[in-house]
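hi! just following up on the protien thing from before. the input was this:
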Amino acid sequence: MRVIDLSLPIADGMPVYPGDPVVKVKIAHTHESHSWELRQLSLGSHTGTHVDAPSHMHPGAATLDELPLERFFGVSRVVLLEDPVWPEGRGLFFAESAGVECLERLAALRPPFVGGELSEQLERGLLGIGIVTYTGLQGLDRLPGGEDFMFYGFPLRIFGGDGSPVRAVAVVSP
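and the predicted 3d structure came back as:
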């Protein structure tokens, strides 16, 4: 079994989507001053590797805390845009840029989640039909092509949450 971290590290001043809050990670307590270490975090809900709830782009749609935990993990596969068949009943990830031209095909398959480099129009369409999206992933190219793996991307339990940073992990069997 191999565990592959697909997450970007959260760091002070890291790049964010234009207009999103600047990421600030500051040391608030040190071992010397308090006998423990503590950091203060200030960031947007769509910082780094994150999951989007339907409410992110659709008023009144499901928020993170309203979705069952089963929506944030499961058997998954990396697919290519040109693959003639995408598997059913799995989370799907794109290692290449995917646009709105994929929406009809994904809507027919109804995967529990979709991730990768997704256009805003594709994200909006997927979230509109209740499919959560993962973006800001790194290292999808390290996953086996054409093979299933287990994906885990749990959000923080934010009341009314429209999105959350996640620790995205793939577990690949030998």
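The chain has a mean pLDDT of 97.
The chain has one domain: 2-9+45-172.
cheers
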